[in-house]
Amino acid sequence: MSVDYLKRASRTAEDTTAEARPVVEAMLADIAARGETAVRDYAAKLDGWHGGILVTAEEAERRAAEVPAALRADIDYAVDRVRRFAEAQRASVRDFEVEISPGVVAGQKLVPMAVAGCYVPAGRYAHIASAYMGVATAKAAGVPTVIACSGPRGGSGIHPAVLYALRRAGADAIMTLGGVQAIAALAHGLFTGKPADIVVGPGNKFVAEAKRQIYGKVGIDVFAGPSEVAVIADATADPEVVAVDLVAQMEHGHESPGWLIATDRALADAVMRRVPELIAALPPTARDAAGAAWRDFGEVVLCATREEAVEVSDRYCCEHLQVQAADPAWWLANLRNYGSLFLGEETTVAFGDKATGPNHILPTKAAGRYSAGLSVHKFLKPLSWQRMTREGSRDVALATARISRAEGMEAHARSADIRLARYFPGTDFDLGEPVTG
Ligand SMILES: NC(=O)c1ccc[n+]([C@@H]2O[C@H](COP(=O)([O-])OP(=O)(O)OC[C@H]3O[C@@H](n4cnc5c(N)ncnc54)[C@H](O)[C@@H]3O)[C@@H](O)[C@H]2O)c1
Ligand SMILES: [Zn+2]
């Protein structure tokens, strides 16, 4: 491949994970040992929160009512769209049964998990949209109990618009908790008495690492860490729009990569000139985050052909992938690794982040190679079952007896033997060589 790196990153995703690992390990062990007391200690130390953890229904309602009516209407609009997409996902999977051979029926039954924990980040920004992305999707999957956690934003607790969004999306319980302590509290069922079956939601490197480490005790959606954006652009793209969109996602945090994969040198040069200017013109919080993100994690790759651009993009496996290039259908058909795809200049990651409908909780750090983002499927177990008639069981039993004995598993084989003897008395079957060892 003849790709040319016009800008290279000085830090990688592995660096940030490595920084979080020991901190998270110690916190999870402490919370496992000391429970709610440890959680309260971390909430006080890390987030300055000394108030109650469980938000009462009365308090949630009162504070949600502080949200201006126009913003409430926008949130309602977005929640509806996320719910509609999630309901379409639910309708795309179904229970089924199939007669595999005469008298042998097997099936799939979709069973929602009983308790879902939804994390809503709250460090740098009030993540209103993450509130409905998690909760509305769990509810569309049919999860009866959804417990949400979000960190305090100032002295009065969770941001009122986040509270409004959580209620609107259908949260059954809400806790004022952020970070590792929130993930642990959800997994152990602290404060609610209801340990989650799955914990979902995006977060910073500590939150993402906490989910990774606690996985096994509890299910998780995916490794959804610091946001990433890649734009694939050819000579037809508008460099100003490309630059604005890259900067938009780097606003998320110091560790949010922005990658440009270009097939045109002039376009790449124009974007690289413009990005620092756009960052410099942002308000301070966003400027700090995007400035560091571009300096440390930004990359610009120049490819000779669009096939090469696909290869490079599949290797990056970016969380958010925008294509601002001719022939969107070709890109949709050929790209294989990403969290979510945004085709054409008319759409952008920011739309998907807030209001289009598909979920914004998406795989980062190349987890898109093996998993998609949050969807109703993550909350549903496609459980299998089987049932057979006596006649139908005969051939299955014979294969089982012989395979079991070939494996050296005599007790398994006898489960087949006893049925054959009862259902087909007097018949002489070839049951394989008895296991002697
Ligand atoms: N992948 C996705 O789908 C997706 C979607 C939206 C947002 N995001 C990402 O979510 C993240 C939100 O990050 P945030 O920091 O603003 O909010 P956050 O809620 O994820 O993290 C804040 C918490 O981190 C904990 N914390 C901070 N410093 C710590 C330390 N030194 N040790 C232990 N714990 C510490 C605190 O308890 C705090 O409550 C961003 O990185 C953003 O890119 C990802
Ligand atoms: Zn974003």
Automatic annotation (TrEMBL):
<feature type="binding site">
    <location>
        <position position="353"/>
    </location>
    <ligand>
        <name>Zn(2+)</name>
    </ligand>
</feature>
<dbReference type="GO" id="GO:0051287">
    <property type="term" value="F:NAD binding"/>
</dbReference>
<feature type="binding site">
    <location>
        <position position="412"/>
    </location>
    <ligand>
        <name>substrate</name>
    </ligand>
</feature>
<dbReference type="InterPro" id="IPR012131">
    <property type="entry name" value="Hstdl_DH"/>
</dbReference>
<feature type="binding site">
    <location>
        <position position="412"/>
    </location>
    <ligand>
        <name>Zn(2+)</name>
    </ligand>
</feature>
<comment type="similarity">
    <text>Belongs to the histidinol dehydrogenase family.</text>
</comment>
<feature type="binding site">
    <location>
        <position position="353"/>
    </location>
    <ligand>
        <name>substrate</name>
    </ligand>
</feature>
<feature type="binding site">
    <location>
        <position position="252"/>
    </location>
    <ligand>
        <name>Zn(2+)</name>
    </ligand>
</feature>
<feature type="active site" description="Proton acceptor">
    <location>
        <position position="319"/>
    </location>
</feature>
<feature type="binding site">
    <location>
        <position position="227"/>
    </location>
    <ligand>
        <name>substrate</name>
    </ligand>
</feature>
<dbReference type="GO" id="GO:0004399">
    <property type="term" value="F:histidinol dehydrogenase activity"/>
</dbReference>
<keyword id="KW-0862">Zinc</keyword>
<dbReference type="GO" id="GO:0000105">
    <property type="term" value="P:L-histidine biosynthetic process"/>
</dbReference>
<feature type="binding site">
    <location>
        <position position="181"/>
    </location>
    <ligand>
        <name>NAD(+)</name>
    </ligand>
</feature>
<keyword id="KW-0560">Oxidoreductase</keyword>
<dbReference type="GO" id="GO:0005829">
    <property type="term" value="C:cytosol"/>
</dbReference>
<feature type="binding site">
    <location>
        <position position="119"/>
    </location>
    <ligand>
        <name>NAD(+)</name>
    </ligand>
</feature>
<feature type="binding site">
    <location>
        <position position="249"/>
    </location>
    <ligand>
        <name>substrate</name>
    </ligand>
</feature>
<dbReference type="InterPro" id="IPR016161">
    <property type="entry name" value="Ald_DH/histidinol_DH"/>
</dbReference>
<keyword id="KW-0520">NAD</keyword>
<keyword id="KW-0479">Metal-binding</keyword>
<dbReference type="GO" id="GO:0046872">
    <property type="term" value="F:metal ion binding"/>
</dbReference>
<protein>
    <submittedName>
        <fullName>Histidinol dehydrogenase</fullName>
        <ecNumber>1.1.1.23</ecNumber>
    </submittedName>
</protein>
<feature type="binding site">
    <location>
        <position position="407"/>
    </location>
    <ligand>
        <name>substrate</name>
    </ligand>
</feature>
<feature type="binding site">
    <location>
        <position position="249"/>
    </location>
    <ligand>
        <name>Zn(2+)</name>
    </ligand>
</feature>
<dbReference type="InterPro" id="IPR001692">
    <property type="entry name" value="Histidinol_DH_CS"/>
</dbReference>
<feature type="binding site">
    <location>
        <position position="320"/>
    </location>
    <ligand>
        <name>substrate</name>
    </ligand>
</feature>
<dbReference type="InterPro" id="IPR022695">
    <property type="entry name" value="Histidinol_DH_monofunct"/>
</dbReference>
<feature type="binding site">
    <location>
        <position position="252"/>
    </location>
    <ligand>
        <name>substrate</name>
    </ligand>
</feature>
<feature type="binding site">
    <location>
        <position position="204"/>
    </location>
    <ligand>
        <name>NAD(+)</name>
    </ligand>
</feature>
<dbReference type="Pfam" id="PF00815">
    <property type="entry name" value="Histidinol_dh"/>
</dbReference>
<feature type="active site" description="Proton acceptor">
    <location>
        <position position="320"/>
    </location>
</feature>
